[in-house]
Specification:
The chain has 82 residues and is mainly alpha-helical. The chain contains four helices and no strands. It is elongated.
Length: 82
């Protein structure tokens, strides 16, 4: 690589302030899931990993059981009356 004075190199963004180890874990987990589920966009897998990473397994189970992950679906009749 050439070193050009004044030219800044690209720096990966890390808005979640993950450590280098966490970034590597995420990359491996995303790659593994994308290989298992090729029809799912990699960005979705990464988003899901980001969402679940800092939560305990019990917190995730509670969110699913309480319906916190799913928005209520309204049919057309309900929308018209409101």
């Amino acid at each position: 690589m050439f070193d050009i004075e004044g030219l800044q190199r690209h720096v990966e963004e890390n808005p979640l302030n993950l450590t280098n180890m966490e970034l590597q874990e995420r990359k491996e987990a995303v790659d593994q899931q994308v290989a298992k589920h090729p029809d799912v966009p990699p960005q979705w897998v990464e988003m899901l990993w980001n969402f679940l990473h800092k939560r305990t397994e019990q917190e995730c189970r509670d969110m699913v059981n309480n319906g916190e992950l799913f928005a209520e679906k309204k049919n057309d009749e309900q929308e018209e009356t409101q």
